[in-house]
Design a protein that fits this description.
86 residues; alpha+beta; GIY-YIG endonuclease; three-stranded antiparallel beta sheet
Length: 86
């Protein structure tokens, strides 16, 4: 992959209400993959998923760093992040 592509960090809400955080360079395609059961193992049994948050990142490296930051957040902090964007 080209480091000059656009990258995104995202949160999807799963059918059981849980939140999954990931990163990608093609947000619509990645959400669709989750909904087809081709995404992360975590989301496969929790479909459908709904995109509830996304932010752009300057590079793949930045996206991965931010993904890790968000994954370390509490659920309450993630919900606040989602609310701020809506």
């Amino acid at each position: 992959m080209n480091e000059e592509e656009d990258y995104y960090v995202y949160i999807v809400r799963c059918s059981d209400g849980s939140l999954y955080t990931g990163s990608t360079n093609n947000l619509p395609a990645r959400v669709e993959k989750h909904n087809r059961g081709e995404g992360a193992r975590y989301t496969r049994g929790r479909r459908p998923v709904t995109l509830v948050y996304s932010e752009s990142a300057a590079s793949k490296s930045d996206a991965l760093k931010r993904e890790i930051q968000i994954k370390k957040m509490t659920r309450a902090d993630k919900l606040s992040l989602i609310k701020e964007q809506s």
